[in-house]
Amino acid sequence: MSTASTRLPEGRYGRSSDERADRKLKIAGTVLGAFLLVLIGYFAYHYVAQNKISAEVITFDPKKDSVQVHLEVRKDADATGYCTIRSQAKDGSEVGRADFRFGGHATRIDRLVTLRTTAEGTTAELLGCHAD
């Protein structure tokens, strides 16, 4: 007993519609992948090139009605701007938030700032820095 083949003879009827669809999908996938790669590169460049200010909280010391924050800011020589810092209580509620401005020609600023709070703060969180 022989087994019947369901495949068409090769080369007899041309390319199948599945092969044409596969080729179109490969082309569409390549184009969309390249577009996505360019888009990610654009946003990465924009973030790195436009971000002229970065900062970090080195230490903080909570008091009854304030938090002492040691803030280190790195920036371009002529950049001016501000950093926003907040403090939270033990229950997670926000008890203080303030913007601290800086400027000048220094590229690194090491500053001890005082964040006034409405209750005892347990944290000091840097929310972000923005150039003017």
UniProtKB/TrEMBL annotation:
Species for this entry: Streptomyces guryensis
Record protein name field: DUF4307 domain-containing protein
Listed transmembrane segments: 25-45
Annotated InterPro entries: DUF4307 (IPR025443)
Domain of life per record: Bacteria
Keywords: Membrane, Transmembrane, Transmembrane helix
